[in-house]
Amino acid sequence: MTSIKGLRIVGFLEGISFLLLIFICMPLKYMADMGMPNKIVGMGHGVLFIAYIYLVLQVHFDKKWGIKNSLWSFIASLLPFGTFVADKKIFEKYAN
Predict the structure, then answer these.
(1) Ranges for the DUF3817 domain (predicted)?
(2) How far apart are alpha carbons 65 and 93 in whole angstroms?
């Protein structure tokens, strides 16, 4: 598996976990006093976030990305739906 393919897969999973955390687990925690889903999904999201950052760095060096692509990829990981946009605008170009 190429590094860009791994980045796309982890980016997708990281994006899903971020959305689950924001739109399902956080409301459950604060509105229904259910903290356990937040802990479980939060741990998974943390692991996926670290893997995503690692893979962005790996692709940066493998594909000789400029600082612009890497910086936008990092910023995308901080925004809801950001990894999906990064996949469409950045990662898809390098997948071939």
Answers:
(1) 5-90
(2) 12
- φ and ψ of 78, to 5 deg: -95, -10
- What's the whole-model pTM score? 0.91
Please provide the distance, in angstroms rounded to a whole number, between the alpha carbons at the two ends of the chain.
12
Name the amino acid, one letter, at 96. Answer: N
DSSP state of 63: T
Determine the average pLDDT of the residues in 63-90. 94
Q: Where are the domains of the chain?
A: 3-94
Q: Looking at this protein, which amino acid is placed at residue 52?
A: Y
Alpha-carbon distance 2 to 78, whole Å? 24
Q: Which is nearest to 48 in space by CA: 87, 9, 81?
A: 9
